[in-house]
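**Fold tokens**
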Amino acid sequence: MLDDAEDNDSLESINAQLASLGIREMDLTTVDEIISYVEGSIIDDPMVDELNKLLDDAE
């Protein structure tokens, strides 16, 4: 998913953006798993809240 540098940010750039939101640095596998989860689910407010809680707990 993040292989095409022309269309996607680098992992370093993604981690910089995450850090600006107070989220810890992640490796490419973790970022990909989160994106896959989000894309594979119908996202509603309770799901977003739970995802945010999981990310916070992972810090």
Q: What stands out?
A: Residues 1-7 have pLDDT under 50 and may be disordered. Residues 14 and 25 are 9 Å apart (CA to CA). The radius of gyration is 12 Å.
